[in-house]
Automatic annotation (TrEMBL):
Protein name: Rhodanese domain-containing protein
Domain Rhodanese: 191-282
InterPro entries: Rhodanese-like_dom, Rhodanese-like_dom_sf, Rhodanese_C, TRHO_N
Amino acid sequence: MNGLIKTASLLFSRSPLWQPTLLGLKPAKSIRPVWSRTTQLSFSCSFSTQTQSNIARFRPVAFYSIVPLSQDRVRELQSEIHSRLKQIDVVGRIYLAPEQGIGGINCQMAVPLSQLETVKSFFQGIREFTQTGPIAFTEGIQDTTTPSFRNLRVVTKRNLVATKVGLQTKDLEMQPDYLDPAVWHEQLADKGNQAFVLDMRNHYEYDIGHFEHAVKMDVDTFRDGMEVMDSLLKEKPKNEEIYMYCTGGIRCSVAGSYLLKKGYSKVKMLKGGVSAYGNYVSKGKNKTSLFRGMNFTFDGRRGERITDDVLSHCFHCNAPCDRLSNCSNTLCHLLFTQCDACQAKMDKTCSTKCKETIEGKIEWTDEYNYHNQIRPTAQKKAVAVAVAV
Ligand SMILES: [Zn+2]
Ligand SMILES: [Zn+2]
């Protein structure tokens, strides 16, 4: 029985994919798990049957568009998009937000290969999203045999990405220069360590992969990004070039616009983010990637490998390891790196306490604290060791 419960809890341990907080968004509900052990069991059975019978291939596809939408239009689009994608077996996580905040759409999907063109033309047909030209879709480097999302969620939010500075859609009209991956590559290769490159992602994303010479923001979520960026740029002349990148581009569209409004005049961002760059280097012969390691993704893949470099270390034994996963004690859910040997030894948990909890030996009584769960003191030390090596 214990074994069954454990399997169920592993299968259903929530991945970062289902944690909107990683982009700085507040979850619609508390993210503290509420499932009982009994429900975990029944859920795991249906999940495993579904994946075994699914032999289709899927392409990870993403895009975003920051555009003004009224509350009514957001609700209209929510239902229109959900029913269309449901019909053609697309799964994913789609956020819609009205113009009073950072409005528009942020869309990540796993699309059956047979439906790729249908999905693209469906979104290209929505007038608001093509106001400034056709949608630039970003596709995963590799197709997957199982979808990288477990279901379809079309969710309305106050902001596509949350910040502490209260931005509205109209504040983001001035946009940075969008550099295609090829142009980005040339400019960075040319400038080397003379380029000022800001990695706009969270600390754990940087740790497993980043561009050479990039500055780490060292934030838990994008929500803290503007303040940290302000302090990093305090001494920088307003006419100096600033390069910035993130996973797919949306964080830079917001942060870059914020910098332009503050008077910085030469802000450049990587169009399509690391995802687009990964595609560019994987297809280009004789191109040495300037990004090293893994590109963390907010879906079931947990990341795409861009180069074979392993930049981070196992949380427990410090062996080279860049696979991020969540503690299998869903009441803890720490996001951390763990090697195969330590995963086996610890039953995919982060600590003896969590291991004993899933074994039913002790009762878990701690309050869930998101920031502690992704970066406890111990992990800070592990990061410091990794940087020092
Ligand atoms: Zn280890
Ligand atoms: Zn744990």
